[in-house]
Amino acid sequence: MRRTRAAMLTATALAGVLALAGCAKDSGGGTSSNNASGNTGSCVTSQAPAAPAAATSSSSAGAKVDASSLRIGLAYDIGGRGDASFNDAAAAGVDKAKQDMGVKDVSESTASPTEDEAAKEQRLTQLATGGYNPIVAVGFAYAEAVGAVAPKYPNTKFAIVDDDSVTAPNVTPLVFAEEQGSFLAGVAAVYKSKSCHIGFIGGVNTPLIQKFEAGYLAGAKAASSKVQIEDQYLTPAGDNTGFQDPTKGNAKAAAEIAAGADVVYHAAGASGKGVFQAAQAGNALAIGVDSDQYNQQTVAQYKDVIMTSMLKRVDVAVYDYIQAVATNNLTTVPKRFDLKVDGVGYATSGGKIDDIVPVLQGYKQAIISGQITVPTTPAK
Amino acid sequence: MTSWRTKVLPPLLAIVFSLLICSIALLISGSDPLQAYWTMLRQLGQGTTAVDTVNLATVYYLSGLAVAIGFQMNLFNIGVEGQYRFAAVWAAIIGGALHLPPVLHVVVIIIVAVAAGVLYAAIPAVLKVTRGVSEVISTIMLNSIVGGIVAFLINPDQFGVLTGNNLRTQVIDPSGRIPGIPIGDASLFGFVFIAAAIGLAYWFMLNRTRFGFELRASGESTTAAAAGGVNSKRMTLIAMLLSGGVAGMVALPELLGRDYTYAITSTQGYGFTGIAVALLGRNHPGGIALGALLWAFLDKSAVSLEQVHVPKEIATIMQGAIVLSVVVAYEVVRRADLAAAQRRVGRALSGGRPASVAEGGAI
Amino acid sequence: MTEPQPVVELRGITKRFPGVVANSDVNLTVRAGEVHAVCGENGAGKSTLMKILYGMQQPDEGTISVNGEQVRLRNPQDAIKAGIGMVHQHFMLADNFTVRENVVLGAESLHGIGSAARARITALAEQTGLNASQDALMESLGVADRQRVEIIKVLYRGARIVILDEPTAVLVPQEVDALFATVRSMQEQGFTFIFISHKLDEVRAIADTVTVLRRGTTVGTADPKKISSRELAEMMVGSELPSPETRESTVTDRDMLRVNGLRLSAADSGRAILDDISFTVRAGEVLGIAGVEGNGQTELVETIMGMRKASAGRIELVETGGTVHDLTKLGTLARREVGIGYIPEDRTRYGLLLTQPLWANRILGYQTRKPVSRGQLLDIAGARRDTERIVSDYDVRTPGIEVPAAALSGGNQQKLVVGRELSGNPVLLIASHPTRGVDVGAQALIWEQIRIARREGLAVLLISADLDELIGLSDTIRVMLRGRLVSEADPATVTPQELGSAMTGAEAA
Asked: Which residues of A118-131 are buried (b: 16+ CB within 10 A; e: fewer)?
């Protein structure tokens, strides 16, 4: 379900999708007591930039591409397929490529939590010697390994998600402007907050998650000069349990809600479930991350508090990359998957933010045009 | 009486037993056990796997030694995990910040690592000796704390450098690296030889020095050691610090031989693996080496097995099964051997009669 | 006059442990409604016998009958089913539970945990004289009440035969009297008690019958009312063994060990375990310490060896040259290094590393000295050579010096320990029960070795429960009672009987 919708989102003009989504959804949003009724919150102090008249372009080409001859190697980070997070998103991209472009041979391999650097190199090397081309490494943890293996196999194409530090010619970085999507999440949070008090839960305090945080803070402050923001991480850098600990997510989110926040945005992977739980218990709203969590099976029981999700389209990036390899034209892969190419964005499922879509579209346009520059590190 | 049977039979039994268990697991999961085992063996001939295995085993070996030193006197140093990470991050930071001539640079980094390991082990050691705090509890807590320390230290505001989305320490100059030995495409860590030397030193310390004797005596019987004049507090302190010092070197093979920097993505868990490896090796330097090699081999197998669509968890099952059955097998064989020795002594002395009260006496 | 039926009958019980035989052909008959004492020195095999009766260990040979029926007790549950309960010397109670919870714990199926259980416990509390409320927390109870709770636990599970394992060891005299009153009243209600003890006066006070164990086997059964403490002591420690010959005195006037005003307080209560102990051992002298076990002998030895820290007093060792070492502040190793040899009372726990080969055991305690050590390094070749020497000089029966110490029999283990402790040229030997649990041959050899060393000027502090050994070896005997040295005896004139009564405090003087 989610993947089909995702495909539609990319393939169609945004305005159209919004209309569709609005029609497709039940009216559940209206029944929840804590839903904004469409009025802009009293919190907002800034005038939103004007919404664009027409939709922006999409990155996907319309023509049917045949990629059946490609043998794709996929090296996942810890968790692998089924982690309901970015590994899964990469898997979704490949699955769609199988469906749309006839890809047949995919080899997938997953990192184990305690493996050393050599194991990552071994994984990539085995894929390369096995004739897989292209090889997609999911996660910046593969940066060293890709940097070491790619030069040894100059005829194999590599892509790495979330890292642009590898400079070899046969390596394509697939990086995202998480801060831009998070900026819009921050704006939405301000518009929906009744107490003018919002919160952020980061999974692990790494530079990558700090980009989410930075964008969110910037967006919130752009919309309101008086908003109060709770800002917490579950674990310090290096302790990846912060992405898999719903209990901790719940505790921290509950604390933020107790402190007065009534909209909480999480960038905490599987720990987000706990954040949703806390929001439901605390009569607050939550913002999901990475995929459209309103439609995610694992958190379906909390969908009534998920007002929107910050979309990070790893699936689109992987799909686009495979398509580009198949057409032998890597220049079509964006340097950075940002708002402009719909590499990041927001979800409208549930209809809870339908009323502020013009506002968000306005900010989005302002970012795309360069009128607003979003920082990548949180302001101190 | 320490016959070859006591030493070789248990691990062999354990491996056979775990192969059986894994075969069952493989059959249940719909894979062909023979194909899986063949893949595991064959990987050693492929690419750099054989050398990678030895490299990884070097790390496990140091970790196993660190744990074994504590085990010798029944100290359960779970804190090797925290000690090595604490040492690694300081060694990487100071090694990256210094610009020294070759050799000296390496020596300084090693000293820093050992000192940091000792320092971090000193906390549970002092708590245990002065306050009687169980080293298990305190080291578990210190393991948890070290994550925060590492994250703090390699934050860009302190000593870290942002590379892509990763955080790492300054890269160590070439003068501070230990050159590897090229074998085919691969490079064998130069630290392998240092680790081997440490293993030898461990053996010597244990079997040839007064300290080693006192260590073993304390481990075997605290009461007999006390009556023999062994100061148990002093032994606890020294054993813990030694263990920490060796633990401090666990990350050095990789740091000085391949990575030259310590990052938030750097591997964790070597300290816990060391516990399993020390158990496998029965705290014997040679046994730990074999255990480390076996463990590393199985780790590498996990990656290779995925290529032939066998669940990589098979390797983990095998590791677990081996440790459990080794512990059981050693105990069984040890008891059988002791009983056999007693029968032998009895036969040799009394012509086949069991000792009676009159000549053997009551307890 | 018909005798009551035997309720417990042990016939020909033999139990071997690796290297030793703990029980050999033990016979015990306990009749219904009696208090049957089982007596013997530590290590005589009482504990093993009771563990067998309570199902904690299986005999290698022999039969157990309960109420005339032969039974197999594979575990304590079997014993409880057969109506046998055991009150352990060390209580097995949870402090943070109430009395009732402690009693019911593990036996919930009998009377549930509700009012039925409460009623049953009330009845039992009355029987045993427990005054504390059954809702009181265990930690608020005194030792005597805790013991009653242990007894209630056993009765609650339906026991009619109760084993009391050294029940008076933890009690003060008044509590002992109260316990005995309880036992007597329950005896009237038909309960049978097996009372483990080595305190002769208590045995005489409470028991209807006494069975004496010695060296793992039954010496005999007697009516304590009809025999004296002296006769009982004789049964326990034995007097039929060949007594060490009296011989010319080698005592010199050179002080070797001087102990002055030594005091040791219990860590928890501050009660004095050793109280104002003063004595001197001279070169060539054997000073024997007599006493019923548990009167502070073990603690005295461990305090002199530095394994316990004296609360007050002074310990000095005078070297042959006249140099005085103050040992009071030194550690065990330093004390050994100035020339103290130590034969511990429990060789397997304090004297040997059981899994290590004999030559490694030679190093223990001597790890800093020649010929087994050179400073920080061990001299393994030297240790092997010297172990070979001990094996041949002390007639240690072993196929070689590579066998683990655990493989040797008790007597041979002890010969190794004695050989080791006499190898370091000691000026003082502390020998704690040096021949306990060893065979007659080993005993003679050990005595002979001690005598030779004494002739060469060794000072010996001998602690023994074997009165013949004490009288035969000692030049002077001091009697220890409740942590004090109470009297002195001349081994040339004293008899075991006189010594026995001095040990129990019965002596008028």
From this structure: bbbbbbbbbbbeee
